[in-house]
Amino acid sequence: MLKQMIKPFQYKKMIQLNIEETQSEKQKSKNYFGTLKRIWYFLSSNKGLLFLVLLMVFLSSALGLLGPYLVGVAIDNYIVTRKMEGFIALLGSLGVIYVFYSLTIWFQNYWMIGIAQDTVYTMRMRLFQHLHKLPIPFFDKRQHGELMSRITNDIENVSSTLNSSVIQIFSSILTLIGTVAVMLWLSPLLTLLTLIIVPFMFFGMKWITKRTGPLFKEQQRNLGELNGFIEETISGQRIIKTFSQEKKVVAEFLEKGERLKAAGFWAQTYSGFIPKLMNVLNNLSFAIIAGIGGILALNGMISIGVIVIFVEYSRQFTRPLNDLANQFNTLLSAVAGAERVFEILDEEEEFKNESLLPELPRVKGEVEFKNVTFSYEEESKTVKNIDLHVYPGETAAFVGPTGAGKTTMINLLSRFYDVDSGSIFIDGYDLAKVKKESLRQHMGFVLQDSFMFQGTVRENIRYGRLAASDDEVVEAAKLANAHSFIVRLPDGYDTVLNQEGSGISQGQKQLLSIARAFLANPSILILDEATSSIDTVTELKIQAALQKLMKGRTSFVIAHRLNTIQNADRIFVLDEGRIIEEGNHDTLLKKKGFYYHLHGKASASGT
Ligand code: ADP
User: Fold this and answer.
1) Pocket test for ligand 1, best of 5, 407, 420 (most atoms within 8 A of CB)
2) How many Å lie between the centroid of ligand 1 and the Cα of residue 382?
3) Average pLDDT, the chain
4) Which residue has the least CA distance to atom 8 on ligand 1?
5) Ligand 1: distance of its center to the CA of 571 in Å?
6) How far is the CA of 376 from the centre of ligand 1 (A)?
7) Regions of the chain where pLDDT drops below 50
8) How far apart, in Å, do the first and last CA atoms of the chain sit?
9) pTM assigned to the model
10) What pLDDT shows up at residue 82?
11) Which pairing describes strands 496-497 and 429-430: parallel, antiparallel, or unpaired?
C-alpha cells in the first residue's frame, strides 16, 4: 500500500508543458455529441491548417465532379458527332483536372496528418500531466494497466481516426451535395430514381450502427481490462511463480481474451455488412439508371452522355454514403476511446481550490491528531476518534495487528486521504488549511519497497531534491552508508538501474532511499519498516543510517517487528482503528495489556 506514496511534487519538473485548461474542455461528456465537441476543442487549436484542409477538400470534391461531367460532354458533343479536335482538347483538360485533383488530395492528407498528430500529442501530454495531479485514491481504486491502455490504445485510436476520417467525412458530405445538385440539374426524374435507394441505405445503416456502437465500446473496455491483467501478471510474476499460479493466470487470460475476441468478432462482423449492403444497393441503382435512362434516351428525353454521367455519379453518390457509414463506425470507436480519455481528464485534481491557501512553512515537527475519524468506504469506519500528540524530534511508532490502521494513519498525516471528521495539526497549522504540496515537502518517506526509476544511481538519489549538486548527492549517500557499495558498482554513481532496481539488493535499495531522504532533509520522517529478509550486515547499516536520519526530526515508524522500536519515545498500539494503548516500551510492558501480549508472542516466535 505504502509503495504508492510517491510524492507528486517530485514530478513537477518532469513536464513543464503549460497547456491552459479551459471551461469548455472540462464539460462532462455524457454522449457522443458532447465528446465530439471536446475533440473539436482539441482540433481547433489548428484552425488555420484546418481551413486549408477544407479548402483542398472542397477543390478535390469539385474536380472529382467535373471529371465525369466532361466525359459525358465528350460523348454527346464530340464522340457522337465525330469531332476529333474538340475531343483531343477535352482529353487534355481532363488530364489537367486529374493532376490537380491528385495534388489537392495529397495536400489535404499531408496537412490533416499534421493536425491529427498535433492534436493527439496535446491530448496525450495533457492526460499525462493531469494524471500526475490526481490524488492517491484515484490510483488505489484502478487497475494500473487499464489506465495505461487509455493513454496508449485509446489515444492511438483517436489519432488514426483523425488521420483519415475527418477528411473522408468532409469530402463525402461535399461530394454528396455536389453530385445531387448536378444530377438534379441534368435530369430531375433520373435523380429521383437514383435517390430511391437512400431510405434503404439509411435504415440498413441504422440497423447496423445501433449494434456496432456498443460493441466497439465493449471491445475497447475489454482491451483495457486485458492490458491491465497483462501488466498485473508481469509485475507480479514472482508471486505467480512462487504460488504456482501460472495455470490459473493463463486460464483467466484466456477467458478475458475470449471476451475481447467475441466483442471484436461481432463488431467487425456487423460493420462488415456495410460494404455488402452498399454493393447490393449500388447494383440496384445502376440497373435503374441503365433501364429507365435507356428508355428516356430512346424517347429523346436525355442524351447518352447524361446516362454515362449518371452512372458515374450514382457511384460517386453511393461511395461517399458508404464512406460516411464506414467512417461513422471508426468514428464511433474513436469516440468511445476519447470518452475514456476525457473521463480521466474530468477527474478532480488533487491541488484544485488550493491556490488561496497558505504554504506550510518549515516546521519543527509537532504533530497532533484531534478526534480524527476516517473510512475508505462509507459503511465501515477505518480509524475512529484518534487523539495523539507527538513533540518535535520524537520518534513515534504505530504497532498493532495487520489491518489495524497503521498505514491509514500515515495516509491521513500526508493527506493522501482526507479525514472525515476531526483535524490534524503540524506545529499548530491545520493541515486542511495549507497547500498539500507544501506539506509533503516537509515529509520524507523511507518505504518497505524502495521504488527505483530507470536511470543512474545518482539520478535516483537526486530524486530527493532535484536541485542538489553532485557533491551533495555523494554526501547524502555517505550519510546513508550507501557510498561504499555504490563505488563498488561497475559504473559507480553512473550505474544504470531499471525500474525493478535489479542489480542491487533489497537492502541496498533501502540505503538509496535513505540517501534520498537525507537529500530532501524533511522535518517529518515516515518509515515503513522492511519486513523482507535483509542480510545482517546491510540490516545493521540500515539501522545505523536510519538512526542518523531520525536525529532532530519527528519520525513515524510503522513497526512490523517490535524489537526495533524499543527506543521509540511514543508507541501507539492500534487495534481495529482505535488507539488502545500509548506509552514507551517500558511503561507498556508494565501495563501488561495488549502490547505486552503482542511482545510476548513476538519474542516467542523469535522476531
Ligand atoms: P495496517 O497498515 O495496520 O495493516 P491499513 O491501515 O492498511 O492497516 O488498513 C486498515 C483497514 O483499511 C484494513 O481493513 C484495510 O483493508 C482497509 N484499507 C486499507 N487501504 C484501503 C483502500 N485503499 N481502500 C479501502 N480499504 C482500505
Assistant:
1) 407
2) 7
3) 83
4) 403
5) 20
6) 8
7) 1-29, 606-607
8) 23
9) 0.69
10) 80
11) unpaired
